[in-house]
Design a protein that fits this description.
Elements (H helix, E strand, L loop, with lengths): L1 H18 L3 H9 L15 H11 L6 E12 L4 H15 L5 E6 L2 E9 L2 H11 L7 E8 H4 L7 E5 L3
Parallel strand pairs: 2-5
Antiparallel strand pairs: 1-3, 1-4, 2-3
Length: 163
């Protein structure tokens, strides 16, 4: 329930910021009466919520949060790239609804799955895939907020780690 609330809140914030030049313009738009039903929305920001919204408005780059993923593969052998791609394809075939990511972080190729907000969610995901990937383990990783609101269709991306 908490995850749903935060996803709705973040999705609403990101959508409102994207659809209006700034949050104040969006608030003004909400206060105008709906032409069909005449309903209005009054926005009241309390304490730290107003501070958080202002800080999000002042950011010039996409936001990331610390979340969790489940690592299903990592290796630095000569054929690590090939093995990583095989692990990614195998995962996509078994679990097409869970996003999978392959990263080269010199000298390792790493394959991680999922976009979890909490360690508990990552542990649940680990339990779900444990039968097919018995060496899977949760890791903490930065996750772009934009990935949290997207449907979990078969998404794969190659990232270059800059750690």
């Amino acid at each position: 329930m908490k995850r749903f609330f935060w996803m709705v809140l973040l999705g609403g914030l990101m959508g409102s910021i994207a659809s209006a030049q700034n949050l104040n313009a969006y608030k003004t738009k909400l206060q105008n009466a709906d032409p069909t039903y005449g309903s209005r929305v009054s926005v009241t920001e309390h304490g730290t919520a107003a501070t958080a919204i202002r800080s999000m408005q002042n950011r010039s780059h996409p936001s990331e949060i610390w979340g969790y993923r489940v690592r299903i593969f990592f290796d630095n052998s000569q054929n690590a790239r090939s093995l990583a791609n095989q692990a990614m394809e195998r995962f996509k075939n078994i679990y097409p609804d869970i996003p999978v990511y392959i990263v080269y972080d010199n000298p390792y190729f790493k394959v991680t799955v999922g976009n979890c907000l909490t360690e508990d969610e990552a542990r649940i995901l680990q339990g779900k895939i444990q039968g097919a990937f018995d060496r899977a383990f949760p890791i903490q990783e930065k996750i772009p907020i934009s990935l949290l609101g997207q449907p979990t269709t078969s998404v794969s991306a190659t990232e270059s780690a800059s750690k």
